[in-house]
Fold each of these.
Amino acid sequence: MDPKKGIAVPPPVVSVIEKLRSCGHTAFIAGGAVRDIVMNRQRPVDWDIATSATPIEVASCFDHVVPTGLVHGTVTVVAGDMNIEVTTYRHDGPYVDGRRPEYVEYLDDIVADLARRDFTVNAMAFDPTAGELVDPYGGADDIERRLIRCVGDPAQRFSEDKLRMLRAVRFAATLGFDVDASIVDSARKLAPGIEQVSVERIMDELMKTMCAPKPGAALMLMEEMGLTSYLLPELCSEVGEKERKGLYAACDLLSPEPEERFAALLWPLGSQGSRRMLARMRTSRAFATAVSRIIEGATDLDDDPSDYQLRLAASRIGRDHLLPAVRLKQALRGDGERMLANMTVVEEKVRSVLAERPPLGISDLHVGGKEIMEATGLSPGPGVRMVLQRLLHEALRDPSVNNKECLLDMAREIGDEMGKAFAD
Ligand code: ATP
Ligand code: MG
């Protein structure tokens, strides 16, 4: 675990640090990027720099800066093709609302800055020029032990910012680590306080948790901490803990797409209930729609759906949601190996059904309203749409009828039937 080897620090990051130093300040890479370098895990997305320079001093060192988060002491430096957040070392003032400090105070010492950070694995700094790791709280050891531990006393750190309880769950999930027992103990006492945190911040962490390779253990940890009833009250009032645990296990079997995972988690709420809950959590409308469609699809499907049933479901919920819906249906069966084998078989079936590009909507039919009117003598109006809908239904049953000749023949028959029905 030598941070000098492994992930290379991008040249623009090194040049920003060196520039700050040449202006008489100190500067380090800090936070998540250092954790990822030490773990030699994935290339960090964000390379955050911490510095002794105040935001005004940072701005005076560079030509191109954007004042993105001045309240927190952050400016974004545009270097090469990168936007790099540069934040002044700071100490958080008192927390009175359980969410945010009243004010922040600038400091000139990196070790003091690291003290405000949540977990030891997130409280390290790295000097890329000297290859030196600043690790006052034993973050590297905790990485070795695969353990999330607070910087300082968890009870105090969670009282300051209640979201940290959920962040512990998130990092345990994304890194595949355990959390220290002291974290669980403190969270049990402070869990109700999570309600003080904004739904946006909560959803941000929940979303990252649900996209972890295996979110099941993290969802169990949320239960153990007593957070679930505050975060997912709709789910808790619908089903008991045992059934919820079955849903968490189902999440692990699904692909790490948040729509699919949330559809499993919110399954007992149904398509309408899940939509309402996600609206409360202020997710995008597109996200809530995707989750509710996946649930709707899985509700209608059999365990071993026919090609026709698959086309029908795709037509109702949209072709993009069919595979997730099918996977969800299988994952909820929860009978282990056999289910997984079946999941592969059904997934293959879905792919081959969709590869045939069957008609799934009226606009995919090889006839239009004008041709229907010519063939049937119907005048413009709802009757034409009814015919088209009937034709779509036939084409879903047997896609080979989707050619002009067949469709117009059928349209004439349907038109005659409709004429008779009206005459009767
Ligand atoms: P990721 O790679 O998933 O973004 P990250 O470690 O960068 O992980 P962020 O949420 O982006 O996580 O936060 C950046 C850093 O800021 C953290 O590593 C941590 O040092 C600090 N931090 C963020 N939120 C908090 C908080 N609520 N309390 C204390 N420190 C925090
Ligand atoms: Mg980050």
Amino acid sequence: MPSRLGQNFLVNKEAIKKIVQKLKIAEKDLVVEIGPGKGALTFPLLKSKLRSLVAIEKDAELAEELIALKEKRLEVIIGDALVEMPAVASSLGGLKYKLIGNLPYYITGYFFRTLAALDNKPELAVFMIQKEVAQRMTAEKGKMNLLAAAMQIWAEIKIEMTLGARDFKPEPKVSSAVISLKPKVAAGINLAQYYTFIKILFKQPRKTILNNLRAAGYAKEIIEERMKEMKIKEEARAESLDLETIVKFSEKSFV
Ligand code: SAM
């Protein structure tokens, strides 16, 4: 029976190898792993040439087993990744690091919000997440959505591979995907304003942009004028916009 901590352990050895390869580990690398569990990714990571590995595991029993290894390059933190990740990132100061994890699916959304708020983001991250979430996150013009707009503003995201339920024990109810995530600098963008705007824009995805903005209290004439300036059709829905247009649109004044 799957536990409340999202403990579906990866057992497909070939997949494990490929996932670790996606992190492109070099000798100098500091790596942080979220939810090492029984060590499916931890052991191959320790076999690589990385300099050190910090693993954050909430299940104390599983964490103790890793601590008992007394592996010099491994530091295990017993705790919640949502709390410990910001602490680890700030303890690294300006040092570069890479991040990996077969994420427990119940924290995915919260974890990415935690990551987005970090000043010191990883130079590269590789995560296993729910396939459907990975597809929404990487969607483009035509299928744009709130998650994609919220994530793509700070990272380049790519689906690297997909996995089936049989690659895990116990088998999860959903399919999984491995994504790579490369943070980018959102130079000159007012992120607070951007996030507020996209929540309004995608509030009711089936509604038109005009109706969503009107529901937020903006005047119809001003919205229509701004849409005209942006060359957005009156009946368009937010899903039809590309990221660049959304960013420019978010910078407009609606007062
Ligand atoms: N990395 C292992 C693997 O690939 O087989 C385990 C992955 S399993 C899907 C998720 C792991 O995250 C479990 O070991 C679980 O105990 C741990 N976990 C669950 N919630 C967590 C949290 N909030 N912070 C840190 N670890 C957590």
